[in-house]
Amino acid sequence: MAWSESMDTLLANKDGLAAFRTFLKSEFSEENVEFWLACEDFKKTKSSTKIASKAQKIYSDFIEADAPKEINIDFHTKTHISQNISEPTLSCFDDAQRLIYSLMAKDSFPRFLRSEEYKELVKKQQNGNQKRWLPFF
Asked: DSSP readout, 44-80?
């Protein structure tokens, strides 16, 4: 399955992303991929008024102390974002996003590839491929 090649391949694939999110939910760590996706969406923002409101939403959802989906980032990164959130730029979450990507790539992604959920998906895909070719035998 192509998703096993890299985190980028997994995150770029709708079905792969859905399966990874389900796996992260089962591990109570879906906030990581949700933050990463929110940052990707944020970086595409064109309107300066939307930049401020989206940045504040990301900050209140994921960064500030006791946020409902608080991500695990170091004090320095969190402080830097907190100091700059009043005048956000499209790159204001880049350091935190890199940290979370790295955490997912080194920790969550390898566990996902070893999970029963992933093994079931591979089995389903293999069975689906076999069924497609059966009429031609």
From this structure: T---HHHHHHHHHHHIIIIISTT-TT-----HHHHHH
Q: How many other C-beta atoms can be found within 10 angstroms of the C-beta atom of residue 116?
A: 9
Buried b (16+ CB within 10 A) or exposed e, 10-25: bbeeeebeebbeebbe
Dump pLDDT digits (tens) for 78-134. Answer: 999 999 999 999 999 999 999 999 999 999 999 999 998 888 888 877 776 655 444
From first CA to last CA, the distance across the chain in angstroms is 24
Which of 19-28, 39-48, 78-87, 116-125 has the lowest average pLDDT?
116-125
Answer whether 112's CB lies under 8 Å from 127's CB.
no
Instruction: Record the tokens describing residue 87, joined without a space.
Output: 């005048």
Enter the DSSP assignment of 108: I
Residue 19 CA to residue 92 CA, distance in Å, equals: 29
pTM: 0.86
